[in-house]
Specification:
Elements lengths: L2 H16 L1 H16 L13 H31 L9 H20 L5 H23 L5 H7 L3 H11 L6 H34 L3
Length: 205
């Protein structure tokens, strides 16, 4: 790839890694931990629900940040590509990875098997995630993108694009505030209250 195309493609890699990859990995990890009766031990251990869930979210964030560091280092060493607004990328990765790690956890609730978790992830990809990819490659007009910011991956794509290109300041502010609000709503409204019910139901209490 030439430098211009590579700079456009890199946000796509970050978007995949911090969204659908986190959903799949976190959901799969929790499901198989439950299968091995690992999660149920939380009820009889000094580890709180918040500590367990927080550890999953932090690991997802760190994994995405590692990808960010290695990818940017690799394209700089191989192609000499640097990002003028690189400082925008870490906070964008953090908020995006955190939200989608929570979504990955939530998708495991009431899932009967591994296939059900993957199916939910696929539905999310086709219904919510694909428009974000279209915005990254300029397949959707800018005036339409403003309305699609209500889709979390589209807001995430705007934040990631800001690290490699130019994005309207109003869109950036909206995307950050919106994703942070969604993180709070999903965690305190879905993930945290649903976790204990999930564990109790799985052990048959």
């Amino acid at each position: 790839m030439d430098k211009q195309l590579l700079a456009q493609f890199i946000p796509f890699v970050f978007l995949v890694d911090s969204t659908v990859m986190n959903i799949g990995l976190i959901g799969t990890a929790i499901f198989y931990e439950q299968q091995e009766h690992t999660v149920s031990t939380i009820l009889t251990s000094p580890v709180s629900d918040d500590e367990y869930l927080g550890a999953k979210i932090i690991i997802a964030i760190l994994n995405s940040l590692v990808t960010l560091v290695f990818m940017t280092a690799a394209i700089w060493l191989v192609k000499g590509v640097t990002f003028t607004h690189w400082a925008w990328l870490p906070p964008a990765i953090i908020v995006t990875a955190a939200l989608h790690a929570m979504l990955g956890i939530a998708l495991t609730y009431r899932a009967k098997d591994f296939t059900a978790i993957m199916l939910r992830g696929v539905v999310y990809m086709f219904v919510v995630w694909l428009p974000a990819v279209f915005t990254l490659f300029g397949l959707i007009p800018e005036h339409v993108v403003a309305y699609l910011l209500v889709l979390p991956p589209v807001s995430a794509a705007r934040l990631l694009t800001a690290g490699t290109g130019t994005v309207h300041g109003g869109q950036l502010m909206f995307a950050y505030m919106y994703l942070l609000l969604l993180c709070a709503v999903v965690y305190f409204g879905v993930v945290r209250p649903g976790f204990r019910r999930y564990v109790v139901r799985e052990i048959g209490v």
